[in-house]
Specification:
- By secondary structure, this protein is an alpha/beta fold.
- It contains twelve helices and ten strands.
- Strands 1, 2, 3, 4, 5, 6, 7, 8, 9 and 10 form a ten-stranded parallel beta sheet that branches.
- The two termini are 20 Å apart.
- InterPro entries: Metal_Hydrolase, Pept_M19.
């Protein structure tokens, strides 16, 4: 069975978030989705509350959703017609500078993590901040991620720092939602050097469906395929995946971090953002239903398209988890 893998999606960071939007992913043919449970700007208390709420909502819908920890469990869920779910963290601040926190989050369902959300911290550099490189604490964190069996992610990470992480990791590294800088000049996009380094680890670059990073106001399957083709032509289709980064907003829930929160710090206007991410557009969920054809239109075989849509991330997860 061909597995379709969505490497990053967002629900409101609120324990009462409605999980029914994930039904649209399942209906579009997705078998596994990584759902964000927190970023660097979210305090640990909020993240733990979100994890508790999300776990409870998944447990309450066993006929539709299943929290998984292995490739075998993903395949079993897919065979049963159930959407497999894992969690991801965006940033190292929730680790409280303690490498042992990585395994704790793993036990709560987190299967993927990157170390800096746009801005620098004591572990790593963000893509919209000064470039320093991976810190000594960051190197210990990479080891902790490898040992705990989480996917080491470099999305949102500074270019120099991402290269350091990929050099330090003993296991394949991914970019869960990123696009080629060669096609669209944006600080969130990744250079050909980063793409080659990711492939050298055996990893995967998952193409984001966010308008600003694709370079279009109305993103669709063709735009995603064009970016996927650039990565495939550079390093091979076996190193391409999909992380559309769809944000399922629910306006009735306020999921802002408590206290002072400056969106313009995390999403700087100088980097091209306007009122944080409010004006960003997402590739629709239905992209999954037509993506195979779009990938084949840019030169991939049916087998390569299937690998991009999930087989490649399934392979890496099998090596890491």
């Amino acid at each position: 069975m061909t597995i379709h893998w969505e490497a990053h999606a967002c629900l409101p960071l609120h324990p009462r978030a409605d999980f029914s939007p994930l039904d649209s992913l399942r209906a579009a043919g997705v078998h596994y989705v990584s759902v964000n449970v927190g970023m660097d700007m979210n305090p640990v208390a909020q993240i733990l509350s979100v994890l508790a709420g999300f776990r409870a909502r998944i447990a309450a819908r066993p006929e539709r959703l299943r929290l998984v920890a292995s490739v075998a469990e993903i395949r079993a869920a897919a065979a049963a017609g159930v959407l497999a779910v894992g969690f991801d963290l965006e940033g190292a601040l929730p680790l409280l500078e303690q490498p042992d926190m990585v395994a704790l989050y793993r036990d709560l369902g987190v299967r993927q993590i990157h170390f800096a959300y746009n801005r620098n911290n004591s572990v790593a550099d963000g893509c919209h901040d000064a470039q320093r490189g991976l810190t000594p604490l960051g190197r210990r964190m990479v080891r902790a991620v490898n040992e705990a069996g989480l996917l080491m992610d470099c999305a949102h990470t500074g270019r120099r720092c991402s290269l350091d992480i990929m050099a330090a990791s003993a296991k394949p590294v991914v970019f869960s939602h990123a696009n080629p800088l060669a096609l669209v000049e944006h600080g969130r996009n990744v250079s050909d050097e980063q793409i080659r380094a990711c492939a050298a680890t055996g990893g995967v670059v998952c193409i984001s469906g966010v308008s600003a990073f694709l370079g279009t106001r109305t993103p669709g399957a063709g735009d995603v395929a064009r970016h996927a083709a650039h990565v495939a032509n550079l390093v091979g289709a076996q190193h391409v995946g999909i992380g559309l980064d769809i944000g399922f907003r629910q306006n009735e829930l306020n999921d802002d971090p408590p206290g002072d929160h400056d969106p313009d710090y995390w999403w700087p206007r100088a980097a091209g953002y306007n009122r944080a991410v409010e004006r960003m557009r997402y590739t629709p969920v239905e992209t999954w239903q037509v993506l195979s054809g779009a990938l084949q239109e840019v030169g991939m075989s049916a087998a390569e398209a299937a690998a991009v849509m999930g087989g490649n991330m399934l392979r890496v997860a099998g090596q890491v988890w």
